[in-house]
Design goal:
Oligomer: single chain
Shape: elongated
Largest sheet: 9 strands, mixed
Radius of gyration: 22 Å
Order of helices and strands: EEEEEHEEEHEEEEHEHEEEH
Bound molecules: zinc ion
Strand content: 25-35%
Structural class: alpha+beta
Amino acid sequence: MQYALLNGCKAEAVRGAQGICMCCGQKVIAKCGSINIKHWAHAVADRCDSWWENETIWHREWKAEFPVNFREVNFFDEKLLEFHRADIHTAAGITIELQNSAISLTELQAREAFYPKLIWLVNGLKFKGFKILKSIPDPHHPALDDFEFCLSEHLSMIRKIDALTQNPNPAILNFYHQDLKSVPVSTAFYAFSWRHPHQAWMQVSCPVFIDFGGHFLYRLRKRYQISGHYSYLQLVSKKSFLAKYAIG
Ligand SMILES: [Zn+2]
């Protein structure tokens, strides 16, 4: 972790120092080697937050975008009698968890149950076989109310009536079809394919923003459909994300 109590103050690790974990109150030792980023580590076997993952530059860069008092905020789970440390917890009560590695569905659901207003910020550069495809119209545009997206890599739709009646051979319509060609194009929404999807992210309940580097995040969204839920991405600038959540 980045912070511990040192002489009574929230402080970063300095070579040779010993501090107190702000989460569980145990002794922590400064680790300031040349390989890992400097951090605090528990002196004895960790009885602290079991959800904590090893920090990377990616974590630190994101944390640095938020006020210091939002970073590493500690909670006690009275039901499970466990300590938890939120990566970011804002003044508005929103928790942002920075997730760099894969997570099990069980742990994901436990965290979603624990934090009342949780947002996942996920390092997409770790995803395998993930491809952002073409832009798509706004899936919630009223002109698409009577249609459903096909769950294929090619952008196409079926009529909702065919989904309702479970027509085994529905007409597959593309956006040149006269019923669809007037639907406005958009540059904010994208289809994607994911060869080896992490099941946890496909079954998540709280908002997920994926960071592939650069100035934009991709919010993972879902359109609920009779013929199967359609997952897609919504482009969100990093700047607007931070303007919304990083204000102290
Ligand atoms: Zn601790």
